[in-house]
Amino acid sequence: MSCSPSHSDRIVIGSKNFTESFILGELLAQQIEAHTRLKVERRFYLAGTYICQQAILAGRIDIYPEYTGTALTAILKQPISRDKPDVYQRVKNQYEQKFGLTLGPAFGFNDTFAMEIRGEEARRLSVRTLSQAAQYAPQWRAGFGYEFMERPDGYTGLVATYSLRFAEQPRIMDLGLLARALKERQIDFAGGNATDGLIPALDLFVLEDDRHYFPPYEAVPVIQQQMLHRHPEVASALAELSAKISDAEMQRMNYEVDAEHRDTQDVAREFLRAKKLVP
What we know:
The chain is α/β, with parallel strands linked by helices. The strands form three sheets. The protein has a five-stranded mixed β-sheet with strand order 7-6-8-5-9. It has two domains: 161 residues, D-Maltodextrin-Binding Protein, domain 2, CATH 3.40.190; 95 residues, D-Maltodextrin-Binding Protein, domain 2 (3-Layer(aba) Sandwich).
Protein backbone atom coordinates (compact mmCIF):
# COMPACT_ATOMS: atom_id res chain seq x y z
CA MET A 1 0.00 0.00 0.00
CA SER A 2 1.06 3.57 -0.50
CA CYS A 3 2.68 5.53 2.31
CA SER A 4 1.33 8.66 3.90
CA PRO A 5 2.57 11.70 2.01
CA SER A 6 4.70 14.33 3.72
CA HIS A 7 3.22 17.21 1.72
CA SER A 8 -0.44 17.49 2.75
CA ASP A 9 -0.45 21.22 1.96
CA ARG A 10 0.14 20.72 -1.76
CA ILE A 11 -0.30 18.33 -4.68
CA VAL A 12 2.85 16.88 -6.22
CA ILE A 13 2.64 15.86 -9.87
CA GLY A 14 5.25 13.67 -11.51
CA SER A 15 5.96 12.66 -15.08
CA LYS A 16 8.13 10.27 -17.02
CA ASN A 17 11.16 11.49 -18.91
CA PHE A 18 9.72 12.18 -22.35
CA THR A 19 7.88 15.11 -23.91
CA GLU A 20 4.33 13.76 -23.89
CA SER A 21 4.45 12.78 -20.23
CA PHE A 22 5.87 16.22 -19.40
CA ILE A 23 3.01 17.92 -21.32
CA LEU A 24 0.36 15.78 -19.59
CA GLY A 25 1.91 16.53 -16.22
CA GLU A 26 1.74 20.24 -17.00
CA LEU A 27 -1.91 19.97 -18.12
CA LEU A 28 -2.78 18.24 -14.84
CA ALA A 29 -0.90 20.87 -12.83
CA GLN A 30 -2.53 23.85 -14.54
CA GLN A 31 -5.99 22.29 -14.35
CA ILE A 32 -5.65 21.74 -10.59
CA GLU A 33 -4.21 25.24 -10.07
CA ALA A 34 -7.10 26.80 -12.00
CA HIS A 35 -9.91 24.91 -10.27
CA THR A 36 -8.72 24.48 -6.67
CA ARG A 37 -6.91 26.56 -4.09
CA LEU A 38 -4.14 23.99 -3.77
CA LYS A 39 -0.50 24.61 -4.52
CA VAL A 40 1.01 22.31 -7.11
CA GLU A 41 4.59 21.12 -7.13
CA ARG A 42 5.99 19.70 -10.36
CA ARG A 43 8.45 16.79 -10.24
CA PHE A 44 8.87 15.98 -13.90
CA TYR A 45 11.34 13.78 -15.79
CA LEU A 46 11.39 11.00 -13.17
CA ALA A 47 12.76 8.43 -15.67
CA GLY A 48 10.46 5.57 -16.66
CA THR A 49 7.44 3.58 -15.54
CA TYR A 50 9.06 1.80 -12.58
CA ILE A 51 10.53 4.96 -11.06
CA CYS A 52 7.19 6.78 -11.28
CA GLN A 53 5.39 3.80 -9.76
CA GLN A 54 7.85 3.67 -6.86
CA ALA A 55 7.59 7.43 -6.33
CA ILE A 56 3.79 7.37 -6.06
CA LEU A 57 3.81 4.29 -3.79
CA ALA A 58 6.30 6.01 -1.50
CA GLY A 59 4.12 9.13 -1.35
CA ARG A 60 6.70 11.35 -3.05
CA ILE A 61 4.21 12.23 -5.79
CA ASP A 62 0.39 12.24 -5.79
CA ILE A 63 -0.41 11.98 -9.49
CA TYR A 64 1.40 11.07 -12.69
CA PRO A 65 0.29 10.28 -16.26
CA GLU A 66 0.42 6.61 -17.26
CA TYR A 67 -0.91 4.36 -20.04
CA THR A 68 -3.36 1.52 -19.39
CA GLY A 69 -1.49 -1.09 -21.46
CA THR A 70 1.76 -0.22 -19.69
CA ALA A 71 0.15 -0.54 -16.26
CA LEU A 72 -1.44 -3.88 -17.23
CA THR A 73 1.71 -5.51 -18.58
CA ALA A 74 4.72 -3.77 -17.04
CA ILE A 75 3.36 -3.17 -13.50
CA LEU A 76 0.63 -5.77 -12.98
CA LYS A 77 2.32 -8.43 -15.18
CA GLN A 78 -1.07 -9.47 -16.54
CA PRO A 79 -1.77 -10.99 -19.95
CA ILE A 80 -2.29 -8.59 -22.83
CA SER A 81 -5.91 -7.73 -23.64
CA ARG A 82 -7.13 -5.82 -26.71
CA ASP A 83 -10.38 -4.68 -25.07
CA LYS A 84 -9.96 -1.00 -24.16
CA PRO A 85 -12.72 -0.69 -21.48
CA ASP A 86 -11.70 -4.05 -20.00
CA VAL A 87 -8.04 -2.99 -19.69
CA TYR A 88 -9.00 0.31 -18.07
CA GLN A 89 -11.30 -1.37 -15.52
CA ARG A 90 -8.87 -4.19 -14.72
CA VAL A 91 -6.04 -1.74 -14.09
CA LYS A 92 -8.26 0.55 -12.00
CA ASN A 93 -9.54 -2.31 -9.86
CA GLN A 94 -6.10 -3.86 -9.33
CA TYR A 95 -4.44 -0.52 -8.53
CA GLU A 96 -7.11 0.18 -5.92
CA GLN A 97 -6.85 -3.25 -4.33
CA LYS A 98 -3.06 -3.68 -4.42
CA PHE A 99 -1.59 -0.21 -4.22
CA GLY A 100 -4.06 2.29 -2.78
CA LEU A 101 -3.99 4.07 -6.13
CA THR A 102 -6.76 4.74 -8.62
CA LEU A 103 -7.14 5.90 -12.21
CA GLY A 104 -8.71 9.18 -13.22
CA PRO A 105 -10.76 9.39 -16.41
CA ALA A 106 -8.85 8.71 -19.64
CA PHE A 107 -7.58 11.82 -21.44
CA GLY A 108 -9.05 10.55 -24.73
CA PHE A 109 -6.11 9.40 -26.84
CA ASN A 110 -4.34 6.08 -27.30
CA ASP A 111 -0.55 6.33 -27.51
CA THR A 112 0.39 2.89 -28.72
CA PHE A 113 3.91 1.88 -29.65
CA ALA A 114 4.61 2.87 -33.25
CA MET A 115 7.05 0.87 -35.37
CA GLU A 116 8.40 3.41 -37.83
CA ILE A 117 10.43 3.51 -41.01
CA ARG A 118 11.30 6.47 -43.22
CA GLY A 119 8.39 7.64 -45.37
CA GLU A 120 10.48 7.44 -48.55
CA GLU A 121 11.28 3.78 -47.77
CA ALA A 122 7.63 2.93 -47.17
CA ARG A 123 6.68 4.47 -50.52
CA ARG A 124 9.55 2.87 -52.45
CA LEU A 125 8.87 -0.62 -51.08
CA SER A 126 5.05 -0.24 -50.89
CA VAL A 127 5.19 -1.41 -47.28
CA ARG A 128 2.27 -0.58 -45.02
CA THR A 129 2.17 -3.29 -42.33
CA LEU A 130 4.57 -4.99 -39.95
CA SER A 131 3.88 -8.32 -41.68
CA GLN A 132 5.02 -6.83 -45.00
CA ALA A 133 8.05 -5.23 -43.34
CA ALA A 134 9.35 -8.59 -42.07
CA GLN A 135 10.87 -9.49 -45.47
CA TYR A 136 12.99 -6.32 -45.49
CA ALA A 137 13.96 -6.32 -41.81
CA PRO A 138 17.16 -8.39 -42.32
CA GLN A 139 18.60 -5.40 -44.23
CA TRP A 140 17.60 -2.89 -41.54
CA ARG A 141 19.24 -1.67 -38.34
CA ALA A 142 16.68 -1.21 -35.55
CA GLY A 143 16.56 1.11 -32.54
CA PHE A 144 14.34 0.96 -29.44
CA GLY A 145 13.96 2.62 -26.04
CA TYR A 146 15.43 0.98 -22.93
CA GLU A 147 12.09 0.03 -21.43
CA PHE A 148 10.74 -1.50 -24.66
CA MET A 149 13.54 -4.09 -24.70
CA GLU A 150 12.57 -5.37 -21.23
CA ARG A 151 8.78 -5.14 -21.18
CA PRO A 152 6.43 -8.12 -21.56
CA ASP A 153 4.58 -6.15 -24.28
CA GLY A 154 7.86 -5.12 -25.91
CA TYR A 155 10.64 -6.37 -28.14
CA THR A 156 10.66 -10.13 -27.52
CA GLY A 157 6.97 -10.61 -28.23
CA LEU A 158 7.02 -8.22 -31.19
CA VAL A 159 9.80 -10.02 -33.08
CA ALA A 160 8.21 -13.40 -32.32
CA THR A 161 4.75 -12.26 -33.52
CA TYR A 162 6.07 -10.88 -36.81
CA SER A 163 9.17 -13.09 -37.33
CA LEU A 164 11.36 -9.99 -37.43
CA ARG A 165 15.12 -10.43 -37.89
CA PHE A 166 17.32 -7.35 -38.12
CA ALA A 167 20.78 -6.80 -39.64
CA GLU A 168 22.36 -6.47 -36.19
CA GLN A 169 21.49 -6.30 -32.51
CA PRO A 170 19.06 -3.39 -31.96
CA ARG A 171 20.51 -0.15 -30.71
CA ILE A 172 19.08 0.94 -27.38
CA MET A 173 18.64 4.68 -27.03
CA ASP A 174 16.61 7.41 -25.38
CA LEU A 175 13.06 7.63 -26.75
CA GLY A 176 13.60 11.27 -27.68
CA LEU A 177 16.49 10.37 -30.01
CA LEU A 178 14.84 7.61 -32.05
CA ALA A 179 12.97 9.70 -34.62
CA ARG A 180 15.98 11.81 -35.56
CA ALA A 181 18.25 8.75 -35.65
CA LEU A 182 15.82 7.21 -38.12
CA LYS A 183 15.65 10.33 -40.26
CA GLU A 184 19.45 10.66 -40.27
CA ARG A 185 19.87 6.99 -41.32
CA GLN A 186 21.67 5.90 -38.16
CA ILE A 187 18.90 3.28 -37.93
CA ASP A 188 16.24 2.09 -40.40
CA PHE A 189 13.47 0.90 -38.05
CA ALA A 190 12.45 2.62 -34.81
CA GLY A 191 10.14 1.69 -31.95
CA GLY A 192 8.55 5.03 -31.16
CA ASN A 193 5.15 6.28 -30.01
CA ALA A 194 2.09 6.89 -32.20
CA THR A 195 1.52 10.47 -31.00
CA ASP A 196 5.15 11.55 -31.50
CA GLY A 197 5.07 15.03 -33.03
CA LEU A 198 8.16 14.32 -35.13
CA ILE A 199 6.45 11.56 -37.19
CA PRO A 200 4.81 14.00 -39.65
CA ALA A 201 7.57 16.60 -39.22
CA LEU A 202 10.32 14.18 -40.33
CA ASP A 203 8.19 12.26 -42.88
CA LEU A 204 8.26 8.99 -40.96
CA PHE A 205 5.80 6.18 -41.62
CA VAL A 206 4.08 4.11 -38.91
CA LEU A 207 3.70 0.46 -39.88
CA GLU A 208 0.30 -1.03 -39.12
CA ASP A 209 0.21 -3.56 -36.27
CA ASP A 210 -1.85 -5.88 -38.49
CA ARG A 211 -1.65 -8.85 -36.08
CA HIS A 212 -2.81 -6.65 -33.17
CA TYR A 213 0.17 -7.39 -30.97
CA PHE A 214 -0.09 -4.28 -28.81
CA PRO A 215 -2.80 -3.71 -26.16
CA PRO A 216 -4.57 -0.32 -25.87
CA TYR A 217 -2.49 2.41 -24.24
CA GLU A 218 -5.05 4.96 -23.09
CA ALA A 219 -3.40 7.86 -21.30
CA VAL A 220 -4.75 8.20 -17.75
CA PRO A 221 -3.80 9.95 -14.52
CA VAL A 222 -2.68 7.55 -11.76
CA ILE A 223 -3.76 9.09 -8.46
CA GLN A 224 -3.11 8.49 -4.75
CA GLN A 225 -6.46 7.55 -3.17
CA GLN A 226 -5.45 9.06 0.20
CA MET A 227 -4.92 12.41 -1.47
CA LEU A 228 -8.37 12.26 -3.11
CA HIS A 229 -9.98 11.61 0.28
CA ARG A 230 -8.31 14.76 1.63
CA HIS A 231 -8.91 16.82 -1.51
CA PRO A 232 -12.03 15.64 -3.39
CA GLU A 233 -11.90 18.89 -5.37
CA VAL A 234 -8.96 17.42 -7.29
CA ALA A 235 -11.20 14.67 -8.68
CA SER A 236 -13.68 17.30 -9.92
CA ALA A 237 -10.89 19.27 -11.63
CA LEU A 238 -9.46 16.20 -13.34
CA ALA A 239 -12.89 14.96 -14.44
CA GLU A 240 -13.04 17.96 -16.77
CA LEU A 241 -10.05 16.59 -18.71
CA SER A 242 -11.94 13.38 -19.51
CA ALA A 243 -11.88 12.56 -23.25
CA LYS A 244 -10.61 16.05 -24.07
CA ILE A 245 -7.45 15.13 -26.04
CA SER A 246 -7.60 13.36 -29.41
CA ASP A 247 -4.65 11.47 -30.93
CA ALA A 248 -4.14 14.34 -33.39
CA GLU A 249 -4.27 17.01 -30.66
CA MET A 250 -1.69 15.18 -28.56
CA GLN A 251 0.57 14.77 -31.57
CA ARG A 252 0.22 18.48 -32.31
CA MET A 253 1.24 19.46 -28.75
CA ASN A 254 4.22 17.11 -28.94
CA TYR A 255 5.19 18.70 -32.26
CA GLU A 256 5.01 22.21 -30.82
CA VAL A 257 7.40 21.28 -28.01
CA ASP A 258 9.76 18.95 -29.90
CA ALA A 259 9.90 20.55 -33.35
CA GLU A 260 9.00 24.18 -32.67
CA HIS A 261 10.81 24.26 -29.30
CA ARG A 262 7.92 26.02 -27.60
CA ASP A 263 7.64 26.23 -23.82
CA THR A 264 5.61 23.34 -22.40
CA GLN A 265 3.70 25.59 -20.00
CA ASP A 266 2.58 27.83 -22.88
CA VAL A 267 1.51 24.88 -25.03
CA ALA A 268 -0.51 23.39 -22.14
CA ARG A 269 -2.11 26.73 -21.26
CA GLU A 270 -3.17 27.38 -24.88
CA PHE A 271 -4.74 23.93 -25.11
CA LEU A 272 -6.69 24.32 -21.87
CA ARG A 273 -7.91 27.78 -22.92
CA ALA A 274 -8.97 26.51 -26.34
CA LYS A 275 -11.04 23.84 -24.58
CA LYS A 276 -12.43 26.54 -22.23
CA LEU A 277 -11.10 24.65 -19.22
CA VAL A 278 -9.10 27.54 -17.77
CA PRO A 279 -9.66 31.32 -18.02
